[in-house]
């Protein structure tokens, strides 16, 4: 059985998808982009500011499901420019500083709303 997870502390879905779905003790968090949920706008700044907002959004969704970043077992990071990888990684490391999850990072042609980074994750209870 699946359960839809939604919080107002993360941006509303910008398409036909849920913020997260829980099934069989696993939480699948949709790709988060750097939208500030209080304004509905992409945060100002560069890759560091955008990565920070993305991870705060992810953290809010996890919290709504009763989980933390410590429950995350896999992340997928999408970057509009791989030249931003080191700066993204610097911020990412502050959120996952102990027992970090498995991860993949990809350079893509374009991300929604012209953002620089999108991150999705899988967490377990």
Structure notes:
- The chain is built from 2 helices and 8 strands.
- The chain has one domain (2-11, 19-124): RutC-like (60s Ribosomal Protein L30, Chain: A, 2-Layer Sandwich).
- It has a 6-stranded mixed beta sheet, covered by helices on one side. Strands 4-5 form a two-stranded antiparallel ribbon.
- It has helices at residues 47-64, 85-95; strands at 2-5, 20-23, 26-32, 35-36, 41-42, 72-79, 102-107, 117-124.
- 23% of the residues lie in helices and 33% in strands.
Features:
125 residues, alpha+beta, 60s Ribosomal Protein L30, Chain: A, six-stranded mixed sheet, two-stranded antiparallel sheet, 2 helices, 8 strands
Give the arrangement of secondary structure elements:
Blueprint: E1 2-5, E2 20-23, E3 26-32, E4 35-36, E5 41-42, H1 47-64, E6 72-79, H2 85-95, E7 102-107, E8 117-124
Parallel strand pairs: 6-7
Antiparallel strand pairs: 1-2, 2-3, 3-8, 4-5, 6-8
Helix pairs in contact: 1-2
């Amino acid at each position: 059985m699946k359960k839809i997870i939604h919080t107002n502390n993360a941006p509303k879905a910008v398409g036909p998808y849920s913020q997260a779905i829980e099934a069989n003790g696993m939480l699948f968090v949709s790709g988060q982009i750097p939208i500030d949920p209080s304004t509905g706008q992409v945060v100002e700044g560069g890759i560091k500011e955008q990565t920070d907002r993305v991870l705060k959004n992810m953290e809010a969704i996890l919290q709504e499901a009763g989980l933390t970043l410590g429950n995350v077992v896999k992340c997928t990071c999408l970057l509009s420019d791989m030249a931003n990888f080191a700066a993204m990684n610097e911020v990412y490391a502050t959120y996952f500083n102990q027992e970090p999850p498995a991860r993949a990072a990809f350079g893509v042609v374009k991300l929604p709303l012209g953002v620089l980074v999108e991150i999705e994750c899988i967490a377990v209870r």
